[in-house]
Amino acid sequence: MSIRIPADIQSLVEAEQLQRATALPSLVRTAVILGGCVTASLVALWASHPVVWVVVWGAEAVVLNGALSASHEGVHGNLARHKGLNRALAELWCLLLPLNFSLYKAFHLEHHRWTRLAGDPEPQAEFHSVWEYLAAAPFTGLVMLFQMWKLSLFALVGRFPGFVRTRRQRRAVRLDALLVLTVTAGLVAAAVAAPRLVLLLWGVPVLLMSPVFTLTALPEHYGCPRVPEPLGASRSTVSNRLFSYLYWENNFHAEHHLLPGVPYHRQHRIRAALGDRVVNSSPSYLRWHLALIKELWRTPPERRAGR
Questions:
Q1: Which of 121, 189, 262, 302 is 20 to 30 A from 271, comparing alpha carbons?
Q2: pLDDT in tens, the chain (307 residues)
Q3: Which residues on adjacent β-strands are paired with residue 236?
Q4: CB-CB neighbours of 98 under 10 Å
Q5: Which residues form the Fatty acid desaturase domain (predicted)?
């Protein structure tokens, strides 16, 4: 499906070479974020204080949620111009979860092709009550990871989802499935040998990542019109600089769907140029979720179902 890009935005992209991927920002950000996580974990192990662990777990949950955004940039070739380095960085971030990068790539490109339309593999969530929302919110990320892990396992026995079509895609998915299975086996072995350590350093952050995933992923398309135009079918959310940094600027989501080939660290230029043409925009993640809860509380289910 072809996307119509406004002439002034296209001129800006060409004039400033905004679609030119460079490795240095990705390498620096990867080193800063992972280095920070390692340092924070060592401090928490040394301090061995519950308050310190809570702070570290919260930060690492945000980082793990951002790991999906980092690999997402790799899907579009935005982490580095060199294909091998781009893939290596994307694979690194995926395996922290662990997630099959090639499977996720096929899934995500299909999502871009059919966003909010028939054929979109991304779940089209629609809540009918506050209780339904509250029951799902803590577990959405874990459900997503488990479903992708299960699809990865099925690929090893030749069962592929519909969005994995070509022989080349299937070969890549199978190779990454072996990698994911190896990492999973390593995690299981580590958990048997040192269960407390694995729980503290990986298990709890992954559990906490799940509601953070709901916080950031749900606003991207929820309630947006089912139209082929990216700016209509996607939503951007304003966020503070630190969270946006850890989230790899994926909060500029409508801009990304318009120009997925513009790397994360340049999406703010697209946002500034588009201005109020970003029709679906939220002032913050928290305010968007509070507004959704308020709407679910006030609007009868039969009226929501009729829309």
A1: 121
A2: 567 899 999 999 999 999 999 999 999 999 999 999 999 999 999 999 999 999 999 999 999 999 999 999 999 999 999 999 999 999 999 999 999 999 999 999 999 999 999 999 999 889 999 999 999 999 999 999 999 999 999 999 999 999 999 999 999 999 999 999 999 999 999 999 999 999 999 999 999 999 999 999 999 999 999 999 999 999 999 999 999 999 999 999 999 999 999 999 999 999 999 999 999 999 999 999 999 999 999 876 555 554 4
A3: 281
A4: 21
A5: 53-281
